[in-house]
Backbone:
């Protein structure tokens, strides 16, 4: 067996580059230097709560919170209040054969955020939840992401329907929205159209945490939007318009308390 040393030449490095490499190696050994890269990466990402529930006082959800109640025509509305989960204020939406949501407008630079995360928990539930069926379109908890979607991108037939709906119900009728729904048995990131409109695409998001406790969800909105509307919209993603939280048991009945922790948009 040869004991000849491994040749150190032939690496193509001149004396100046070898000196730079030696300097870099010494710097990497300095205390704390290795952690600078992860710190820089963390510093590049900021989370911004959307109407942070954790900053609100317990009691009925007030108008000045920034969350606007969105009742549905001819359907009994839900109720909403801030309650304590341990020592942390959270939102509780109570639904009893009823349905409605609360919307928070997205403004400024957050309209261009591409990531969203939140916590939610559920007590009770509707009698049935079936994705894509009107007769069982009840879900204990929903988080809608409404986009500022240009009507020019919408097919002509659907565009006419949106204009009629806005004339009847107001300008908040979305041209495109993602709806993340809590399902008692499925959380596989599957995608489906709402049984009421193709302009809302429903996602059953994978989550971390027990099904009978607080769950955490993190979504790449750009990726989800592309899955849902990319073929129509093309590259990119429109700006965000609003976040809506809701619960509904109006179709099949049942009683549910849906809890929402802070909902955060991330800029990195």
Residues:
């Amino acid at each position: 067996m040869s004991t000849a040393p491994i040749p150190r030449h032939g690496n193509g490095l001149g004396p100046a580059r070898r000196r730079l490499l030696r300097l870099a190696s010494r710097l990497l050994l300095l205390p704390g230097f290795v952690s600078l890269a992860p710190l820089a990466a963390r510093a590049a990402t900021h989370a911004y709560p959307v109407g942070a529930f954790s900053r609100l006082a317990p009691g009925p959800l007030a108008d000045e919170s920034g969350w606007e109640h969105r009742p549905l025509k001819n359907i009994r509305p839900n109720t909403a209040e801030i309650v304590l989960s341990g020592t942390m204020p959270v939102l509780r939406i109570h639904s009893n054969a009823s349905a409605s949501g609360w919307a928070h407008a997205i403004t400024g630079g957050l309209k261009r955020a591409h990531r969203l995360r939140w916590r939610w928990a559920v007590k009770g539930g509707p009698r049935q939840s079936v994705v894509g069926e009107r007769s069982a379109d009840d879900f204990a908890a929903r988080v809608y992401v409404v986009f500022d979607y240009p009507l020019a991108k919408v097919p002509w037939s659907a565009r006419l329907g949106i204009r009629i709906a806005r004339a009847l119900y107001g300008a908040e009728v979305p041209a495109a929205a993602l709806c993340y729904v809590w399902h008692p048995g499925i959380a596989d990131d599957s995608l489906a159209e709402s049984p009421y409109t193709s302009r809302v695409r429903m996602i059953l998001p994978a989550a971390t945490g027990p099904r009978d406790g607080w769950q955490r969800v993190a979504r790449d909105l750009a990726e989800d939007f592309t899955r849902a509307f990319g073929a129509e919209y093309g590259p990119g993603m429109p700006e965000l318009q609003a976040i809506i939280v809701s619960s509904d048991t109006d179709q099949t009945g049942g009683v549910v308390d849906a809890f929402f922790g802070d909902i955060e948009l991330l800029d990195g």
Summary: The helical segments are 15-28, 36-43, 156-169, 221-233. The two ends are 55 Å apart (CA to CA). The chain has a mean pLDDT of 85. The first helix runs from residue 15 to 28.
